[in-house]
Amino acid sequence: MTDVEQRVAAFPVRLAQTRGGRIAYRETGSGEPLVLLHGVGSSSASWVDLMAVAAECLPGRRLIAWDAPGYGDSTHLSQASPLPADYAQALADLLDTLAVDRFDLVGHSLGALIAGAFAAAHASRVRALLLLDPAGGYGASSPEARQKVIDGRLGMLAELGPRGMAEQRGAALLSPRATLSAIELVQWSMARVDLQGYPQAVRMLAAGRLAEDLARFGASKAARSDTGSGDAASAGAPVVVMCGSADTVTPEEGCRKIAAACPGARYLTLPGLGHAGYVEAPVLVAAEIARSLLQMSGMPGR
Known about the structure:
Layout: H1 3-9, E1 14-18, E2 21-29, E3 32-37, H2 48-52, H3 54-57, E4 61-66, H4 84-97, E5 103-108, H5 110-121, E6 126-132, H6 143-169, H7 180-190, H8 197-207, H9 210-224, E7 239-244, H10 252-260, E8 266-270, H11 277-280, H12 282-296
Parallel strand pairs: 3-4, 3-5, 5-6, 6-7, 7-8
Antiparallel strand pairs: 1-2, 2-4
Helix pairs in contact: 4-5, 5-9, 6-7, 6-8
């Protein structure tokens, strides 16, 4: 068994039979739930190094990392071109099955689109929303631009296959200073993307509108807040957007704009980290998640 296989095996896959189908997930710890959503070329396995430091960096937390529909052992969605809301419903089904009502939600890259859609539809269940190097989606772009995104992603998959795509693209998700251990985990996960699930997720990326979902979430939280000032919106929403300064996939400029879409959201730079910063520096990112959650703990509406 290789080093990366040992790290992944330390957090074995569990299966939940939900109303919408089977969902695979990994779990560690106990206490307040913290739900982790992976990106388009990834899986629940990408979180294992962060989960390994959770007892130290995120004490009193129950971490739940899912395999989105069409990833790992999770059932595919029935739609050929699903929307973020379809994945959000699958997430709701999983959390209902696990009897998780209110929780803190972390979404990375494409997972941020799902997190935003879930938060917009189920604001009362999301205590705090943390978006790591979020993909904003292309739903507001022209049909031609959206199709170009789909063709580019699926063309690479068709040409290289999952393993070839992982070898060519995996390291680009990290900074030039990333360790071999981090690169191996990213490539291990990407090499196992599903030939049906990945295209569905790419089409969802093309349709996503994260900024609009964040605005809806912020408005819903503001409406539920009682600030005592007569201006609920002034309290802001419990949202933090983080981005690595060396991220070339979803660079800081775009991530700052995503944060600005939600009044009161806070933006944080992760110095020196690439797109998958939580793989590259799990201790640092886990500590920033813990710090952000603590800072938001007293916010109205949380």
